């Protein structure tokens, strides 16, 4: 296991093997997205990596392709055979190659849009007579549908993610369900997991709070190709800061232009 700054790193880089597709394919989704343009290798140096950028710049598409290569279901969740049949076809994973040191098979792919489906899947498992064990045991002991969106998310983080073993967590906008206080709680859970040296995170986010995780690498998909930027350079930080400091002036200008 390669360690940097005392923390673990498993997935070390993501290579784009453009020679695998034709010139005409390169002009089509998802390969034509500017963030991927002439990108050869995306290196990961920290246990926490963020993908940021405008809506539609290709963050989720890349995260889904990584999840697919990790053998996590594309619809989100962990390895549950039933979900594979529901997965829609992805192309980007055919071009990518992941370099591991060491290869990690445990983890979770969290898509907030499909979290509801995952909760329903656990409920169906509970109904199945031949399903060995309690499907809720790793998720706080009861149906995720019996809690609010944010409570269910934090249950997931606090229970499922506390398990030991080398793991990689791919999270797509985990802040969607969380209040600002719960986002801080989530940062604290992340820190504890990173400190175990057994956890790596890749997170797509629009949250200036989550992005504040110390020492994380932030990749901006607003650039072509995507590139690393500092926290203070993100619009999430700059716009939020400006809005909070100059709310009246900013709103006045905004509404004048409207
Ligand atoms: N199946 C598809 N076919 C064609 N285009 C698609 C398909 N799925 C997504 N797109 C487009 O690809 C682009 C990237 O989508 P993606 O979901 O990766 O964006 P994102 O960076 O995660 O955005 P957001 O911040 O809004 O979640 C978008 O413009 C989207 O409309
Ligand atoms: Mg997205």
Automatic annotation (TrEMBL):
This is AAA+ ATPase domain-containing protein. GO terms for molecular function: ATP hydrolysis activity. GO terms for cellular component: plasma membrane. GO terms for biological process: double-strand break repair; iron ion transport. Gene3D superfamilies: P-loop containing nucleotide triphosphate hydrolases (3.40.50.300). It is a peripheral membrane protein. InterPro entries: AAA+_ATPase, AAA_GajA/Old/RecF-like, P-loop_NTPase, Rad50/SbcC_AAA, Siderophore_ABC-ATPase. Its main location: membrane. The keyword Membrane applies. It holds the Pfam family AAA_23.
């Amino acid at each position: 296991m390669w360690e940097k700054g005392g923390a673990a790193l498993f997935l070390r880089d993501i290579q784009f093997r453009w020679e695998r597709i034709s010139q005409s394919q390169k002009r089509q989704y998802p390969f034509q997205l500017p963030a991927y343009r002439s990108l050869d290798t995306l290196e990961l140096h920290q246990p926490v990596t963020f993908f940021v950028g405008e809506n539609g710049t290709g963050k989720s598409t890349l995260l889904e392709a990584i999840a697919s290569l990790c053998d996590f279901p594309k619809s989100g969740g962990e390895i549950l055979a039933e979900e594979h049949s529901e997965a829609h076809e992805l192309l980007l994973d055919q071009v990518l190659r992941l370099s591991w040191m060491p290869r990690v098979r445990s983890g979770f792919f969290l898509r907030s849009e499909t979290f509801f489906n995952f909760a329903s899947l656990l409920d169906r498992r509970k109904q199945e007579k031949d399903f060995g064990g309690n499907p809720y045991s790793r998720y706080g002991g009861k149906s995720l549908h019996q809690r609010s969106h944010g409570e269910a998310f934090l249950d997931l983080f606090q229970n499922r993610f506390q398990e030991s073993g080398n793991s990689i967590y791919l999270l797509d906008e985990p802040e969607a369900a969380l209040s600002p206080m719960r986002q801080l709680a989530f940062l604290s859970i992340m820190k504890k997991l990173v400190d175990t040296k057994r956890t790596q995170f890749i997170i797509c986010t629009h949250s200036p709070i989550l992005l504040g995780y110390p020492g994380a690498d932030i990749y901006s998909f607003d650039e072509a190709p995507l590139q690393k930027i500092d926290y203070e350079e993100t619009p999430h930080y700059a716009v939020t800061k400006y809005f909070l400091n100059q709310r009246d002036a900013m709103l006045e200008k905004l509404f004048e232009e409207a």
